Amino acid sequence: MTEQVVTRFAPSPTGFLHIGGARTALFNWLFARGHGGKFLLRIEDTDRARSTPEATQAIIDGLAWLGLDHDGEIVSQFDRADRHRAVALEMLEKGRAFKCFSTQDEIQAFRDAAKAEGRSTLFVSPWRDADPSTFPDLPFVIRLKTPETGKTVIHDKVQGDVRIGNDQLDDMVLLRSDGTPVYMLAVVVDDHDMGVTHVIRGDDHLNNAARQMGIYEAMGWDLPVYAHIPLIHGGDGKKLSKRHGALGVEEYRDMGYPAAGMRNYLARLGWSHGDDEFFTDAQAQEWFSFDGMGKSPSRFDFKKLASISGQHIAAAENAALLHDLLDFMAVTGQPTPSDTKISLLSQAMPLLQERAKTYIELIEKAEFILADRPIAPDEKAAKFLDAVSLGILSELTPHLQNASWDRQALEGELNAFAEAREMKFGQLAGPLRAALAGRSATPSVFDMMFLLGREETLLRLQDVKGTA
RNA sequence: GGCCCGUUCGUCUAUCGGUUAGGACGCUAGGUUUUCAACCUAGAAAGAGGGGUUCGACUCCCCUACGGGCUGCCA
User: Fold this and answer.
1) What value of ipTM does the predicted structure carry?
2) Binding-site positions of A
3) Distance from residue A352 (CA) to nucleotide B37 (C1'), in Å?
4) What is the overall mean pLDDT for chain A?
5) For chain A, which domains are there?
6) What is the number of other CB atoms lying within 10 angstroms of the CB of residue A45?
7) Which of A238, A242, A295, A380 is labelled catalytic?
8) Which nucleotide does the CA of A271 lie closest to, via C1'?
9) What is the pairing mode between strands A97-100 and A232-233?
10) Can you list the alpha helix ranges (DSSP code H) found in A127-248?
11) Does the pLDDT of residue A282 top 90, yes or no?
12) Which of A75, A106, A315, A329 could pair covalently with A102 via S-S, beta carbons 3.0-4.6 A apart?
């Protein structure tokens, strides 16, 4: 019996939850869920100057929208500062850490000199092995006593074995001179205390892992399994930043991508399971493994997101899709449709969902249901409502008054009408579509008429009559 | 500067020494068509460069180039 898998997502609340962070969270979630484990959330708010409650909320909201549910209470790293401090002191006690009285100026001078002489700029503290009797009565930081020789090997599930010479690792600061813990200490202590078994994070932390392992070693704690995943780059290949397409997840939500499509697309970025492109959460959870992770950064591609997104909309179950669509409308500030319209939407959903890649497109194509009479045609639709077309429509009207109102019959009726006048069906369908929906992109005219019903259809034709 | 990681079609990727280097998105051409979407058919499109190892390298090793990361009393 192996121990239960515990993963965590540990963002710092210094801004919105961007797409790279979301993907990291996704992989942690997939791995935990796929192994019947726990997925924890910890907010790394030790940097008080940059952390904001708004950012914390944005992260929570973003994860909620993406459907990445976490287990247990959200841990605030800042709240655990006392514990971090205690661990640092314990290492000091054990002789695995030391007090360093060097000032920032002295350190800077050291680095400048090292750079000028072409030496390593890693700071070597003169206090590392100093006699306590020589300690001045000055502020000090506590630094980890890193081995000076040998190698640290990170057995990384994605990157393989990565060896770093200990001479490349400095005696990092654990506790600042004001007694507050730094991130490097806090992550390790928190991961250990939270029972995290697998640390899945961006590969920008790969080098940090070697440093952090020193703390595990000093404390005699078991190491977690590391998996450092490659980052996402922008469409131009450059690192993703706020200036380079790194949008908050809520922006993707507002662009109308369904969360399921987002999860699918994001999972496929840097990870693969053979040639599978479209899959469900259940499949992703079952399939996810570090073996499928690539090592190189990937670029975000909206075109492919749209394609995957469209497939998820098409495959969605009716009630769930309607629910998500209404959520989307609420979130983006659109009025909630009446019960009648919602009922029609539900009926029309099979027609709508296979022609939309986003909720925005879905709504555009549902305009014939959502709009109230009289329908205001958009520019493209208006072009179909010229005098000739209106003539055709008024000629058609009496035929509709008597037609039996089912899809099949309507199709027959309209085809016969067009055929009798030797016109291409498009000459009839265009104006009809414009009159019924006020849009040029809609479901089939037969479907719209059937759904709208005879009365509403005739009223809309009536509305349009004098507009030319 | 030092250390670490990476590099297959435009993009996401498959391949885990032997393939006509496969798929997806996008693109191009044609078809279907009532708009949009969808769909069908066809097509263009890739192993960064150079050395090895091997009967045989996209695959293993080395070098170079390029990209990225770390090198903080940031996370």
Assistant:
1) 0.94
2) 242
3) 9
4) 92
5) 80-229 (3.40.50.620), 379-467 (1.10.10.350)
6) 21
7) A242
8) B13
9) unpaired
10) 183-193, 206-219
11) yes
12) A106
